[in-house]
Amino acid sequence: MILLVLIGSYFLGNVLTGPIISKLFYKQEIRDKGSGNPGARNIGRLYGKKAFVITFIGDAMKGMLVIFTAQSLDLGSEIELFTLFAVTLGHVYPILFKFRGGKGISTFIGGLLLFNPLVVAVFISIFLIVYPFIKSFTIAGVGAVSSLPVILLLFSYEQFTLLAACLLSGLVLLAHRENLKEKTCRRKGRDS
Predict the structure, then answer these.
(1) What predicted TM-score, i.e. pTM, was given to this entire model?
(2) Rounded distance between C-alpha atoms, residue 115 and residue 177, angstroms
């Protein structure tokens, strides 16, 4: 049962909202436009705020759906986060799109919101505290993502849930590695 839920979660992650919106409404291939990323940020840059919001919500719903499924089956918090890892993995590395997916942040946030809204409140608070000092959306976001295992530790979650949180955070950080390199190089250039 758990294996089927995890496999189903991965393939659900392969359903990318960005390319659907791009082809349906704009008759374009999103991977050939802007940054080439099929996520909400690139969609927003190309087609505006409305397209950004629809893409963000669509990708966030995937995370919410797998958490809802795991909760409905009473699989426990660790499996809930492993399903969120699986759907995010499917979003970032979709086999149906030759492993060229989004960055996973929308799916990550959507799933966490249903997993534990208080965790999301702390997550957002960390982002809001870090952002004014760093002045970088990406670095502040990555800082908040990195803090997930620590947040769950403070909420007294079990070790396997913490392991799932580490894998999930690691996956999102891996997906953002190019952005981080780019931001770090820019900051070094400014400081020198």
Answers:
(1) 0.90
(2) 26
